[in-house]
Amino acid sequence: MCGRFVITSAPQALRQLFGYLEQPNFPSRYNVAPTQPIPVVMSDNGRHFRLMRWGLWPAWVKDPRKFTLLINARAETVKEKPAFKNAIRRRRCLIPADGYYEWQSFEGGKRPYFIHRRDGRPIGFAGVAESWVGPNGEEVDTVAIVTAPASADLAVLHHRVPVTIDPRDFEFWVDCRSDEADTVTPLMRGPEEGEFVWHEVSVRVNHVANDDAQLILPITEEQREAEQTRPAKRASARKPAAADSDDGQGSLF
Questions:
Q1: Rounded to whole angstroms, what are the CA distances from 249 to 16, 159, 162, 201?
Q2: What is residue 13's predicted lDDT score, i.e. its pLDDT?
Q3: Entry pTM
Q4: What are phi and psi of 147, to 5 degrees?
Q5: Bridge-partner residues for 4, per DSSP?
Q6: What pLDDT digit, counting tens, does each position of 28-51 carry?
Q7: Given Cys at both, which of 75, 108, 142, 159 links 188, Cβ 3.0 to 4.6 Å?
Q8: Among 77, 33, 29, which Cα is nearest to 54's?
């Protein structure tokens, strides 16, 4: 799964790697969360930089407020699920990132981990995009991250991982002129074992309002002890979201 990620590389470095024509200037983000606008790279007479809402709305959705939050799409079913089958054929995209977070359950709660490439290079997550048009003509560009089964090492944190596209395959992935997805199926896989590394970080990342460079630093023993002894806030009751049982990947669709 991918529910939070990080973008820290300089805009010019990302522009050079992903090859888009625009020259956006955006700040580093250390806690990107669903429903927020995120950078997306698509192909349309050259590669282009776009901002899209993280959480895909298929074109056929009538009322997004009543629709499941689809932040991820499973590689195994993305070509068949009604929510994604048109997007994987016609609107494949790349999502620049420098790492992402995952949570591991322990007695008494969960601990967050920051996961990134061993060599420190930026990442191109595989994405699928849709443009939703409302009844009053309003248009919202939306996107989901494709996920795949985790390699043996990453599986200790979570059984799903974002699909990462090698820079050599960027053009092949975003080129949708053939209007079919079978040719890119081999690209929809997780990182190889040993390609990514991770370390534990502070639970400060749990709060979306926190967005600073301290979030990705390895946690110290003093921090861990302080966080473990801090009284937990009482969680307010809420109605479970439809996607909770499937990590936001749309099992109903």
A1: 31, 13, 11, 25
A2: 97
A3: 0.89
A4: -120, 160
A5: none
A6: 999 999 999 999 999 999 999 999
A7: 75
A8: 33
